């Protein structure tokens, strides 16, 4: 399936250290760009997270945040009696040195390093919990990107159908437009040169016929539109391929506009350029 590069996912679970939470945010980017915001005590888990994300995501800027929920950690903590005793001794010494100083508040005590005792760290359980969270979040992220990708694919397919319809409408008009313009050119040259049999008239008409022949451009447009349909149906990481095809479509539309021999053909080229630009905007969000 076609995937968007935009998505969000979050997952959380209890661990021996408290409530562990992971968030993934994804936006469009030319390449895969990973950014991590990981709590310092969880920094060792970053390589595992990176490996898991790279295995599931091919392109986009992905922000990964892994942290302990504060309320969960607070419930899991206790107080270390030894640390409290040391803090009391320090407080008594400080009180003697500074009699005018106020007594320690409960909030000050709880913030003192080492007072809030944490349960023994079980690295294996923590790593397993983080790995499971990452898997769940990635499942959710990929699902969100696929849903968005399906909408983008439908939008592109709608515009491709519109372009194909315009190309098919214009194809029968090309020979008539060329003949009409040749006749007009012949009359103007006849008036200017005074002879309908002049070799220069025939040369100018032949040159014009070559320059105004847009059959090749229309055929290439048809081929490129078919390729867009094929790439969308094939799915996968198709963003760069679709962007290249959109550039080729735009090039053919520009050539069609420059060689247009009638107003309907010129109008068609303008509509094609508008639709192609809309496709290119959608393609920028596809993985």
Strand order of the largest sheet: 1-2-4-3
N-to-C order of helices and strands:
EEEHEHEHHEHHHHHH
The low-confidence runs, each spanning 5 or more residues with pLDDT under 50, are 72-76
State Rg: 34 Å
**Mean pLDDT over all positions:** 83
Quick one: biggest sheet? Answer: 4 strands, mixed
Helix content: 55-70%
Strand content: 5-15%
- Tell me the overall shape: elongated
Number of separate helices: 10
C-alpha termini separation = 10 Å
| Computed structural class | alpha+beta
Structure, explained:
It is a single chain. With 287 residues, the protein is an alpha+beta fold. Among the domains are: 40 residues; 136 residues, no CATH class. The strands form 2 sheets. It has a 4-stranded mixed beta sheet, sandwiched between helices. Strands 5-6 form a two-stranded antiparallel ribbon. Helix 8 packs antiparallel against helix 9. The longest helix is centred in the middle third of the chain and has 48 residues. It is elongated and about 120 Å long. The relative contact order is 0.14.
SSE inventory with pairings:
Layout: E1 7-15, E2 18-27, E3 32-38, H1 46-56, E4 60-68, H2 70-76, E5 78-79, H3 81-97, H4 106-111, E6 116-117, H5 123-170, H6 173-193, H7 199-211, H8 215-234, H9 239-259, H10 263-283
Parallel strand pairs: 3-4
Antiparallel strand pairs: 1-2, 2-4, 5-6
Helix pairs in contact: 1-5, 5-8, 5-10, 6-7, 8-9, 9-10
